[in-house]
Amino acid sequence: MMDILIFGASGHALVVIDAVEKQGTYRISGLLDPNVAAGEERMGYPVLGKDEDLPAVMRTTGAQGAIVALGDNRLRKRVAENAAARCPDLVFVTVIHPAAVIGRTAGIGPGTLVMPGAVINAGARVGMHAIVNSQAVVEHECRLNDYCHIAPGAVLGGNVTVGAGALVGLGARVLPGLRIGASAVLGAGGMAICGIPDNDTWTGVPARAKG
Fold first, then answer.
1. 94-211 belongs to which homologous superfamily?
2. Which residues contact 110 (CB under 8 A, 6 or more apart)?
3. CATH no., domain 2-92
4. Is 153 left (phi over 0), alpha (psi -120 to 50) or beta?
5. pTM (2 decimals)?
6. Which residues are catalytic?
7. Per-residue pLDDT tens for 35-82?
């Protein structure tokens, strides 16, 4: 069983810890967080230092893998890239809660988290360091790029593309075949009936550009 580290010690880290424990594939050595004092604990696991302590912590714990437990897409990307640069041999692990439903032909990239009740259907592809949160539905042949976040209860129809770093908010809906652009946001409860350009924020039903 691989020993892993978790980047982050906030509320999102707690749900990641729970998913890792229930998956039963990895053993948690501890957490890294620049904003929490070393020695504090989260769900019984110690905070071992800051992000920049990664090389030393890997040596002392023997951990080979990690997952970045940060809900903010930009921050998750920055932390993952910095960790990979510091420790090229670090393995980013995929964490899938056993209560998720994954299609046989779906593909999920390293560093990605899939939470309980999530559905990722046949032919869907999820990139690296993404989050498919609780009760989210990713229908057949969707394409989710790196560092995106499909929030709890969101539903993507078939053949939807979600760009890198995009956020599909709580309970939002995306009709089949549409594209949510890179770093775009579809707000909570919104319904996309047409594509959303890169970097735009859209809200409402039907969703329209904010401001």
1. Hexapeptide repeat proteins (2.160.10.10)
2. 91, 92, 93, 94, 128, 129
3. 3.40.50.20
4. left
5. 0.97
6. 140
7. 999 999 999 999 999 999 999 999 999 999 999 999 999 999 999 999
